[in-house]
## 1
Amino acid sequence: MKSTKQLHQPIIDQCKNNNAKAQMQLYNLYCKTMFLVAFRYVNDSFIAEDVMQDAFIKAFKNIKSYKNEVAFGAWLKKIVINQSIDQLKKNKLELVSINEEVIANTESEDWKVENDISIDLIIEEINTLKEKYRLVLTMYLLEGYDHQEISEILNITTNTSRTHLLRGKKY
């Protein structure tokens, strides 16, 4: 049985040759998932749709740089996340740097959740947070980025990333 990667490779190869039909096929394969990724960041379905469209345009323009080192979906997801963050920055997202002494004793890895609480409820709660907390929590918990990566992507310090994570967790 062929893996998803093997099944999609011919389509990706055709996209590298600017085949519009293949681009539409690839778009149809990934658009729903990438919309949800964008929505987790921008928290607005209309903006998420725009972000997703822009990300696909960027992906198709740069598809020749895709080298099969990671799954295509992971490569595309990174573009969508970066496009979402760029959109938020464009909307003048304010991420305030926090004093380092605040961080010293606050880092906690206790993420225990009651068994009767669903992942959907957790995501719903994350979506109610202020944007700066929601972004860091989403990137850390749902996307698996570490504080160093988050700080580079959002252009904040790692201490600010930790603080936003902990405050978001507290809320």
Note: The two ends are 46 Å apart (CA to CA).
## 2
Amino acid sequence: MQRSLHIEPDKCTGCLQCEMACSYENYGMFNPAKSRIKVFEFHQTGAKVPYTCTQCDEAWCLHACPVEAIRIDLNSGAKVVRDDLCVGCKVCTIACPFGTVNYVQTTGKVQKCDLCYDNVAGPACASACPTGAITYVDADWTGLDRMRQWAAKLGNKATA
């Protein structure tokens, strides 16, 4: 069964532990700027929502890549960027409708959430989240519809 990140925005406090854990897992340093998950703040409402690659079935990034540098990990189902194949053309960043594939200037490659596919403990962001806003669950869905529902709900609240 495919596993996916399940995000419950109403539980997010904006502590950024997920960003810190992600950057440490992938770069060996605590630097939220290098994180593959971001906590977006709705300034009008003060709500905070973690977001990252939804590992969507459509996988526009995967299909757009001219050198097939994005592959599906058979164990996790994650769409994974192969650094050894990526040429840094950024076509995948344009193809992703959610803006969760990012170009990294220092490496000349792109990065996106890969569900920490090589970490037996699962995604670092889920393990680090103190409130349970991010969990790693068995699922046959990507969370896309839930993300859209929350974005619509939170985006329409009046300012406090």
Note: The radius of gyration is 15 Å.
## 3
Amino acid sequence: MSTDTQAPQTITTTLRPIDREGLLGFAEKGRNNPGMRGTNKVHTVTEGQYRTISHVNGHEVVVDEPLHLFGQDTAPAPGEIVLSGLGGCLAVGITAVATWKQVKLSKLELFLEGDIGNSAAWGAGGAENPPPEMGFQAIRVKVLIEGDASREELDQIVQHANFYSPVANTMRNPVDFAISLTD
């Protein structure tokens, strides 16, 4: 009778990696041209009530409002889409920074909440609030992250990615905004 016992093994799978060399090349282009800008383009079409379909590089993003706000509740509300974009941008940044620092991630999940005000009823006769009192008043993000680094190193990665996040910085800082009728 064999008394060999094997110690249990911990098997950790890592998230699908990005191209580190490509990332380093993209970073070098940014260092060499810090004023470099790109342009995101979206075409949004209203189907009726509050349901819209935004066309984005061959993809569709559907937006609606919940029933209590007179929508059909067929898709996320605009504010939820904004939080989704923020979560996606932060996840991209965290993945990029971890890749740059050669940290392999095994789990990355973001939980976002935003307190939003709409007592103005979109400007349709509700409260006459000034713009700073409308929209998101507070946003909270919790990050569940695991990888081959200490908790402190993982926190540094998250904080670094947050500092450089284009979407987070758009939400934190004033941005030039123009709206007009088409020609």
Note: The beta strands are 43-48, 51-56, 59-63, 105-117, 135-147.
## 4
Amino acid sequence: MNKFMLMALGAGSMIALAAPAAAQNVTGTVNITGSVAGKCLVVPGSGSTFGTTVALGELADATGKLRTNIATDFNAAAGLTARVVCTTAAPTISVDADPITAATATGGGGYDNSIDFTASVAVTTTAGAAGPFTNDSAAAAGADTLIGGRLANNGSDNIAISASNFRTDTASDLLAADPTYTGKITVVIKPGA
């Protein structure tokens, strides 16, 4: 009987050895967080400014009045386009045109020392063309306006500036002589909400 018991014990031990151990799972989790701030930038280079200088030369024609081809000369200038991208879906734009004004000469009595014009900015979004967004130099600066979608990010310039309707206060005004007339167009693009 001892033999029988020993055999039974031996068989039971073999069964216990043959049974698999209960599986134990271990789970590790790595949480990742981050953020992207709303920002707009000029590419390439990730800058915050773009622009150029358009030298129009002599502003008066042979009679002393404003040249009629200034818009053509302005719009043919290089550097009136840029590539701007924003990380937000609803960027805004504002346009402010400042008149081209003489540094020291005064106007009045049939003479003008200032040239007004209308600035226009065309924008390309992911959905196509937007704008133009305009401001006349005789008016207050334009308010922030929704562009209407994400700025195009296809590798091409998506901002194009032009100007038109150059004029003196009265068409018969002569331009006052001054070696330095300056004006500007300011375009501000913000990330928006």
Note: The chain has a mean pLDDT of 91.
